[in-house]
Amino acid sequence: MNPGLGPPTETFTFEGLACWQEARRLRVLVAGKIVRQLPLQERQRLGDQLLRAARSTTANIAEGYGRYHYRDNCRFCAQARGSCFEVLDHLITAVDEHLLAEEYLAEGRRAVISTARILNGYMAYLKRQARDD
Length: 133
Prior knowledge:
Blueprint: H1 18-34, H2 40-44, H3 46-66, H4 70-96, H5 102-132
């Protein structure tokens, strides 16, 4: 894939994918800002679930990319999209249970929707590529 050009760069890895970059922003938002707002006891409960779901978004995109097959890649992207919406559900739960302010839900919702939209576009591209093969 990168013969004789030295170590891989983001051009030759999943890091160059807009969907991975957006999912990374979601993960960083969850880990660096939102989980820290939860009460200490909930950081170990709901915070752990939030982090797992957010981390799953980037991990699934990366794993799908590494499969080098359009259908496999699309399947992993669908998993990543599901994890995005799992993050949103956990954020809604945190607000419903008065563990998180509405502003963090709004920010998280925007990040989830943005990530899901870009993933949908990438998945449509993958499906077209699979049909063309």
